[in-house]
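Residues determine shape. We examine one folded chain.
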Amino acid sequence: MQRKTKFKNSRGEQLAGVIHKPDAGAVRACVLFAHCFTCTKNIKAAVNIAEALVAEGLGVFRFDFTGLGDSEGEFSDTHFSSNVQDLVDAAGFLESELGPVEILVGHSLGGTAALAAAHQIDSVVAVATIGSPADAEHVLHLLQDDLNTIEAEGEAQVRLAGRPFSIRKDFVNDVRSQSVRDGISQLRRALLVMHSPIDELVPISEASRIFQSALHPKSFVSLDDADHLLTRDSDSRYAGQVLSAWVTRFLANLPAGPSRARFEPGSVVLSGSPDDMFVTAVNADGHQLLADEPESVGGSDRGPTPYDLLAAALGTCTVMTLNMYARHKNLSLQGVEVVVKHDRIHADDCQDCDTRTGKIDRLTRELSFTGDLDKAQRKRLLEIADRCPVHRTLESEIRIESELKTG
């Protein structure tokens, strides 16, 4: 779930951003993302990392720094210090909208700004940098060809990433006055440093400087053969997945949850404890997931409910059966969608049911087919749906036996 929004920074300029929230369940923690120098909130790496974090139940806010993207202001009037202040202002806005910022993530110079801003945002417990320099002054190597002109004339038009930008002497003086690296040892937050060893814009030696300056807890992750902007989807999604797994170790307010259920070949193993409330770890023959109940009944909505899983069993079996039949008959079936809903109805409302009193469970299945199919073929597919093994199991007599494991 995404929502575009705007907020005013401390200079009164409106900055544009996007808030990401999980489609279901409570937000486990809030992440503020700082994009790279002259980039925008819509750079693919920012979007992919946000999506990876949201998939783990985190809320994410990515925004455009002053003078970039959809934000107001003149880029030429900005500098590193103003970017840091934008981050602090964005954190205040996000707290009013979603909750206090607990994780700061920054890409390239945005990571350097995140390191600086963390000292001013009390709620932050973890900071992650991606391809970031240890000090803001490193960005001046991008301006080498124009640096003399900027210092002599006070301003120059430079081309960065193929686009023209006006850079003033105030920017140069500001980044030279910063001492971000000196403050890293006083960060007092968990730190994750991610960097590619083949980064041509910010060498990996900068990551080493950040890491060596920091106190524990700190971690380093190599992004292997990724480029600086993480232009490949696989690289940015990997960074997001690593980040989401890492931050859970440092967030005290995460909902309680069970450890992973053990693996037993050919079986579904489930585990949980009273302290986990409704959250249950599931290991389905090596495939891990969580089950839960919605917040409305006291759960934390971290996974499908037991009846959701039952409906999923029927729905997945239906899709598999229909696609297998279509392949066997060489039908022009391009796709199948099945919507399964569970409810309970009065027995006397069911004319074909053996039960005549009380209520019975009902699973309603709605099927949609795409492809060049005639009416007869669609009708036949509907009939085949009723032949899926799970459908037959649910409609036949089921015996459940329970025993207590000893030893």
